């Protein structure tokens, strides 16, 4: 069985959406990964098929019912089970690598104010966040998480070197990229890239990665330095 993403959502028509195109879309058509959507509304029990209710304690919005969600989660059963939420741990490339290495995963997409806390506890859902901003539902976050995993699956990205050099490998941002035209809008491509000196180009790119990380992401830079120091200690 190929790597499989199971998505529980009130809006199954939002899938595969962008994942039906380009890299992920070709891989989906080639059966390198699979997508299964589960319509949460199918697990409602009353005649109005209600999936949400007003929050206990008052306040705005609606909360997704734990009984309905629990039946939906029981029907899919495959782990890890992830709930996308700004209250979760931040998703990292390291976690993406792990998630791409398991047979598949289940993603719960919340709408409204979110889901009843008890179902998160009862099903031991892993809460993951894309970042400190608020979406109108978990679906765009699920699409992003799946995209990040799919591109790491064997055979999806043609050139494995592309994966090895990119951002967050070694806790460094990418070096800047340039293509033709050589002079555009009065702006030249850095001379070294035209030199044909592959060692100098490699060195320049490494310096650019370090400079960008230091200036833009001091948090990443500290982690990178710590990893470099630890590697040096290992060698000694
Ligand atoms: N939401 N990272 C609220 C997010 C989000 C995020 C998903 C909005 C869950 C209930 N998800 N719903 N940030 O903003 O993952």
The level-1 CATH class of the largest domain: Alpha Beta
**Topology, number of strands:** 9
Using the CA coordinates, give the radius of gyration. Answer: 22 Å
Helical percentage: 25-40%
Bound ligand species: ligand 4HQ
Tally of helical segments = 8
Oligomer: single chain
CATH architecture of the largest domain: 3-Layer(aba) Sandwich
Q: And the CATH topology of the largest domain?
A: Alpha/beta knot
Question: Outline, from the CA principal axes?
Answer: elongated
- What's the number of structural domains? 2
Portion of residues in beta strands equals 15-25%
* Low-pLDDT residue spans: none
Strand arrangement, major sheet: 2-1-6-5-7
Q: What is the structural class?
A: alpha/beta
Main sheet, how many strands, which sense, barrel? 5 strands, parallel
Question: What's the end-to-end separation, in Å?
Answer: 44 Å
What does this structure look like?
It is a single chain. The model has no long low-confidence stretch (mean pLDDT 96). This protein is α/β, with parallel strands linked by helices and 236 residues long. Helix 3 crosses helix 5 and helix 7 packs across helix 8. It is elongated and about 70 Å long. The protein has 8 helices and 9 strands. It folds into 2 domains: 3-150, Alpha/beta knot; 161-235, Orthogonal Bundle (Trp Operon Repressor, Chain A), CATH 1.10.1270.20. The longest helix is centred in the C-terminal third of the chain and has 19 residues, at 198-216. Helix 3 (93-101) links the parallel strand 5 and strand 6 (104-108). The strands form 3 sheets. It has a 5-stranded parallel sheet, sandwiched between helices. It has a two-stranded antiparallel ribbon with strand order 3-4. Bound molecules: ligand 4HQ. Ligand 4HQ binds at residues 84-86, 110, 114, 129-131, 133-135, 137-138, 141. Residues 84-86, 110, 114, 129-131, 133-135, 137-138, 141 line the site of ligand 4HQ.
């Amino acid at each position: 069985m190929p790597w499989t993403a199971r998505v529980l959502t009130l809006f199954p028509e939002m899938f595969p959406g962008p994942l039906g195109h380009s890299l992920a879309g070709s891989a989906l058509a080639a059966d390198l990964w699979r997508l299964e959507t589960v319509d949460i509304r199918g697990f409602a029990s009353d005649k109005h098929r209600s999936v949400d209710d007003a929050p206990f304690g008052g306040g705005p919005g609606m909360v997704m019912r734990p009984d309905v969600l629990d039946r939906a989660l029981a029907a899919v059963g495959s782990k890890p089970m992830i709930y996308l939420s700004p209250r979760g741990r931040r998703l990292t490339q390291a976690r993406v690598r792990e998630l791409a290495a398991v047979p598949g995963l289940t993603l719960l997409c919340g709408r409204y104010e979110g889901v009843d806390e008890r179902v998160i506890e009862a099903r031991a859902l892993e809460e993951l966040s894309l970042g400190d901003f608020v979406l109108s539902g978990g679906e765009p976050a699920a699409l992003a998480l799946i995209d990040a995993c799919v591109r790491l699956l064997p055979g999806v990205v043609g050139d494995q070197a592309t994966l090895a050099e990119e951002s967050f490998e070694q806790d460094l941002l990418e070096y800047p990229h340039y293509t033709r035209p050589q002079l555009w809008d009065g702006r030249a491509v850095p001379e070294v890239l035209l030199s044909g000196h592959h060692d100098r180009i490699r060195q320049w790119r490494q310096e650019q990665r370090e400079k960008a990380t230091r200036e833009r992401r001091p948090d990443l830079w500290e982690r990178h330095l710590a990893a470099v120091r630890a590697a040096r200690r290992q060698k000694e």
